[in-house]
Amino acid sequence: MAKVEKKRALPDETLREFLRDMLLIRRFEEKVEERFRAGELPGFLHVAIGQEAVAVGVCRAMADGDVFASTHRAHGHTLARGTPPTAVMAELYGKPEGCSHGYGGSMHLYDLARGNLGANAVIGGGLPGVVGAGLAYKLRGQEHVALAFFGDGTTNIGTFHESLNLAQLWKTQTVFVCENNRWAESTPGWQHSPVWDDMSKRALAYDMRAIKVDGQDVEDVYERTQEALEHARSGEGPVLLDVDVWRLHGHYIGDPQVYRTKEDIRDAAEHHDPISHLRERLDVGDDEFEALDAEVTQVVEDAVEFAKNAPDPEPEDALKNIYA
Amino acid sequence: MPELSYREAVRDALATALRGDEDVFIMGEDIAEMGGSMGVTQGLLDEFGAERIRNTPISEMAIVGAGIGAAIAGMRPVVEIMYEDFLTLSLEQIVNQAAKHRYMSGGQITVPLTIRTQGGAGWSPGAQHAQQLEAWLVHVPGLKVVYPSTPTDVRGLLWSSIYDDNPVIFFEHRLLYPLKEEVPDELEGIPLGKARVVKEGTDVTVIAIGPLVHRTVAAAKEAEKDGISVEIVDPRTLQPLDEETLVESVKKTNRAVVAHEAVTRMGFGAEVTAVLQEQAFDWLDAPIERVGAKFAPLPFAPVMEQFVIPQPEDVLAAIRRTMGR
Questions:
Q1: A74 inside domain
Q2: Which chain B positions have a beta carbon within 8 Å of A101's beta carbon?
Q3: Contact A67, A117 (CB under 8 A)
Q4: Does residue A315 lie within any of the structural domains?
Q5: Is B260 left (phi over 0), alpha (psi -120 to 50) or beta?
Q6: pLDDT class for A1, splitting at 50, 70, 90?
Q7: CA of A324, closest CA in chain B: separation in Å?
Q8: Number of domains, chain A
Q9: Cβ-count burial A127-158 (b if 16+ within 10 Å, e if not)
Q10: Do B160 and B167 form a contact (C-beta atoms < 8 A)?
């Protein structure tokens, strides 16, 4: 891969932390795939392998007190925001020690203390909520921002349009992060949107500021997100981040991806892996990388051990937490 | 004691909450300058300003969803859906988001949101402006559902709904807005989940909601001419349901009728019937009767509309059937 010539704003030390976070998410999700295939994890799961730079770049740019809503592809966002791997893994195993105490699962990861207002299994389901939270911060004079992650497929659902319109109309403290991986499940972008290769056009209709982002470049994600957050925080209005990103694996674990060519899958892995990209940029040698890999792999192994050994909930706990 | 209409009583609860609590604000379609399609929010813009009395675009999903987000962020929003027919547009946010955030988060999230809406037939608006959809909402764990029938109740229950930490769907009935009644000097919350015995009686209990409370009062007067003593109970809150008061009344009278304006089939009354059957079977001297709309969309022509929706005579006929007359 050709080296990207670019002035760096972030110190290497910070970027190395980002690399560790991204690698942790990668190893975590690979382990989740493995344990799911082994039949240990109930339900069904979606990994975001290839999209780690978005999770880390965005979540690292957020400030204390900022909140976000996520999607069915939420492991990375949740880990990047600082929820311990043990708590995320325990949730996937359906344990009370999990970040949603076993009530949510992979598609409903929550961590209110870290501003995670919940991963949503309904496309576009979380978008109106971040408009409301962004409105509340504005009304109360609080300098927080509410942010939503979603994919390109979401740009076709009503909540997306109602939310962007209302957010811009009221200049709520909101940031919309469109992770455009060019797949809505199995449907390619060109089959689902007339502006599939440039989602920033969606913002034009609402007179909203849009910023294009290279989602394979964590530094670009971090800097553009900071810019968007500051814009929203200052009361100038919401921002749509149009993030180009590559989904290296299928829609769900076990997806044979019959709708995608082998060449495309191989090309994505070889040329669009954000971890390889960052490693090269930082000139991380084999020894250093292996040491880092061993460290995060151990974190993941420990998380699995923790989750497996954690007690199950009592069946009748199902009747708790329905009402406040 | 001041006399307030049902409409003024809703407004009074809103204004009192807005006056005393910076975290309360309201939003909905045409609620500001126009004062809402039913005139409920008239005058609130002048007193509280456009930051807190927020006109929205025609975006039911965003209205409810923004309410959810503001509630999670610590406020107590009251949102208005102009007609309950339009609740259908926001059902995803109500059913999947508002009702489930607390549960899916294992108790971390609180959604103190009140969703006001209104509906009801009797003025020929046709099939998309007068449905009664409360049965759809009582079926969803995580929601509270309130349906007051009088000015006193609507004021006290709206107050309690605003200050409840759960999402509340608050149904008002269009034909009740002009109804006047003396209300307590001071606004006091009426606890959610407490039924009200509207009128005591000994022969048959009619469990009625919304406008059917008033149609049952009319029917009961007729029944009493025949020597039938009718007890009327208004659950007021449909979820949670005050089963105890309902069951105790039926154990006393040994006969029951359930009455609402919504379609009878699969309606709220069907659930009440099941509750009574489970908890008061041995006390029942007659099959439980149900009164509601016939199984049809609401028609436009006034004679057809009146045929479809339940009238006092329908309640009276049901009362008589339980008495074997």
A1: yes
A2: 105-107
A3: yes
A4: no
A5: beta
A6: very low
A7: 6
A8: 1
A9: bbbbbbbbbbbbbeeeebbbbbbbbbbbbbbb
A10: no
Q: What is the pLDDT of residue A5?
A: 52
Please indicate whether residue B200 is annotated as part of the active site: no
Return the CATH number at A68.
Answer: 3.40.50.970
Tens-place pLDDT, residues A80-117: 999 999 999 999 999 999 999 999 999 999 999 999 99
From the list B8, B80, B101, B129, the catalytic residue is: B129
Tell me yes or no: is domain B196-322 CATH 3.30.365.10. Answer: no
CB within 8 A of A71, min separation 6: which ones?
A119, A120, A123, A126, A149, A150, A151, A154
**In angstroms, what CA-CA distances link A218 with A10, A18, A111, A209, A242?**
11, 8, 23, 21, 14
Residue A316 lies in a domain: no
B66 touching A (Cβ < 8 Å): yes
* Among candidate residues B290, B116, B312, the one with its CA nearest the CA of residue B213: B312
Same fold, B3-182 and B196-322: yes
* Residue listed under structure tokens 């007067």: B221
Q: How far apart are CA B290 and CA B312, in angstroms?
A: 13
Determine, for residues B92 and A127 on separate chains, whether the beta-carbon distance falls below 8 Å.
no
Query: What's the topology of domain B3-182?
Result: Rossmann fold (3.40.50)
User: Do residues B159 and B165 lie in contact, with contact meaning Cβ atoms separated by under 8 Å?
Assistant: no
Q: How far is B104 from chain A (nearest CA, A)?
A: 4
Sorted by sequence, the CB contacts under 8 Å of residue A155 that are 6+ apart come out as A178, A193, A195, A199, A202
Based on the residue annotation, tell me whether B129 is a catalytic residue of this protein. yes
Tell me the residue range of the domain where A204 lies.
12-307
Provide the pLDDT for residue A3: 46
Q: CA-to-CA distance for A93 and A105, rounded, in angstroms?
A: 8
Q: Considering all CA atoms of chain B, what is the largest pairwise distance in Å, rounded to the nearest integer?
A: 59
A1 within some domain: no
- Computed on alpha carbons and rounded to an integer, the radius of gyration of chain A in Å comes to 19
Please judge whether B69 and A100 are an interchain contact, meaning their C-beta atoms are less than 8 angstroms apart: no
The partner residue sitting opposite B104, judged by closest CB among A108, A137, A146, is A108
For residue B202, the tally of other CB atoms under 10 A from its CB is 12
Using the Cβ of A90 and the Cβ atoms of chain B, whether some distance falls under 8 Å is answered with: no
Could you tell me the residue ranges of all domains in chain B?
3-182, 196-322
User: pTM above the 0.80 mark?
Assistant: yes
- Specify the length of chain B in residues: 325
Chain B residue with CA closest to A96: the answer is B106
Mind listing the pLDDT tens digit of every residue in chain B (325 residues)? Answer: 899 999 999 999 999 999 999 999 999 999 999 999 999 999 999 999 999 999 999 999 999 999 999 999 999 999 999 999 999 999 999 999 999 999 999 999 999 999 999 999 999 999 999 999 999 999 999 999 999 999 999 999 999 999 999 999 999 999 999 999 999 999 999 999 999 999 999 999 999 999 999 999 999 999 999 999 999 999 999 999 999 999 999 999 999 999 999 999 999 999 999 999 999 999 999 999 999 999 999 999 999 999 999 999 999 999 999 999 8
How far is the alpha carbon of A160 from chain B, nearest alpha carbon, in Å? 9
Check if the beta carbon of residue B322 is closer than 8 Å to that of residue B257.
yes
Q: Estimate to the nearest angstrom the gap between the alpha carbon of B21 and the chain centroid.
A: 25
Radius of gyration of chain B (CA): 19
DSSP H or E stretch at residue B203: none
